[in-house]
Amino acid sequence: GEESAESTPEEELTQEIEIPENLRPRDHINQILKLDQDNEIKEAAIEKAADIVLKELKRLYDTAIKPLETVYKYRDLSNRHFG
């Protein structure tokens, strides 16, 4: 066969890429994606608060709702939602 002057897709994948020296600043990316230190602290606080609320809901369920399920024989409710 006849060789063409154009490169094949395989050759394009193996060509070396020149990376420019003066790249754009990337500092804003973490801030936009909320990956910076400030948001990490906020996320930890929210996670802690959510954990406290969920534990309180579980306690409330165990003390107030579960006894009613027993009295009214609705045992399947706890398995469905809080297994």
From TrEMBL:
Gene3D superfamilies: 1.10.268.20. InterPro entries: EHD_N. It comes from the Eukaryota. Residues 56-82 form the EH domain. Residues 1-19 have a biased composition (Acidic residues). Residues 1-21 are annotated as: Disordered. This is EH domain-containing protein.
